[in-house]
Amino acid sequence: MRDVAIVAFAQSPHRRRTDELSEVDLLMPVLHEVLGATGLKANEIGFTCSGSADYLAGRAFSFTMALDGVGAHPPISESHVEMDGAWALYEAWVKIMTGEADTALVYSYGKSSPGEVRDVLTRQLDPYYLAPLWPDSVSLAALQAQALIDAGDTDAAALASIAARSRAEATANPYAQLTGDVPAGDHLVHPLRTGDCPPIGDGAAAVVLAAGDTARALCARPAWIRGIDHRIEAHSLGVRDLTDSPSTRLAAQHAGAFERPVDTAELHAPFTSQEVVLRKALGLGGDTRINPSGGALAANPIMAAGLIRLGEAAARIHRGESDRALAHATSGPCLQQNLVAVLEGESAHV
């Protein structure tokens, strides 16, 4: 087993629209910043992995264009996942753990503004029974929220307080899209109001991973990945208990999240109701600071928001603001796929 750490993190300012920018334009400043933080050049990276979705771009193999931002000559060892960048980070972590690389560049991006996100995300659904009905992502999240309310796990006031706390925390985040006193708004799909839902926007993020002494040479206080795991729920929503997330709990268990308390948790909860589910599944109490970055309610670039949760948790460790942090990423309707990582600072290294 090798010690692997996140040694650098960068992200773009998240905006409602970036019509003037291509995916490469969006990525280039982020890639330059994250590599500049380590002093590495692109040709010194052992492995490169990206996460994105062709459905957002509206064309097949769109990620190959984004490689122009990295530079594919001289030839590089590269891979891509049609998932959030958090899963690209997992692939890169495996690559380093097997000894095939000592460093890795992971990046992801999402331009949600060109299309109708609620319609695009229906393509994630079961193609035989659910997708033909075109239930959009907000409507499915509303079903989950109503199930939580019916079970007595939350209510409208509690959901509103989650939204208010998240946007208040985001005031200290220069990259956030929504900050401060954002009105709850009208019901978008009952019981969810506009404030319970994530903003639509464009953005990109990148991290650099490194092993052992290489990590220590590149970063004053690396964020060591003590455990990482991902699991999936049943594809059919009708056979799931939407008030719980067994896959998150199992991933956290395998990542070692329950061995000791965490002081920070960056949860990928695009809807307020999903934070309720995640906090219960992860057993998070009042001593854990939840989403100090503002979370996905402040900025939710699809296919990058999960990687950003890992990056934000790592950045707090880099700055000495956290010693043991949990990062979570999700993909699919109603928390269908979940990844959990536990990060620790050098002082907690054992």
Name the descriptors:
350 residues; alpha/beta; 10-stranded mixed β-sheet; two-stranded antiparallel ribbon; 11 helices; 12 strands; globular
Question: Which secondary structure elements does this structure contain, and how are they paired or packed?
Answer:
Blueprint: E1 4-11, H1 23-38, E2 47-51, H2 54-57, H3 63-66, E3 78-81, H4 85-97, E4 103-111, H5 117-120, H6 137-150, H7 156-169, E5 187-189, E6 192-193, E7 202-211, H8 212-218, E8 223-232, H9 246-255, E9 264-266, H10 272-282, E10 289-290, H11 305-318, E11 324-331, E12 337-344
Parallel strand pairs: 2-3, 2-4, 9-10, 9-11
Antiparallel strand pairs: 1-7, 1-8, 4-7, 5-6, 8-12, 11-12
Helix pairs in contact: 4-11, 6-10, 7-10
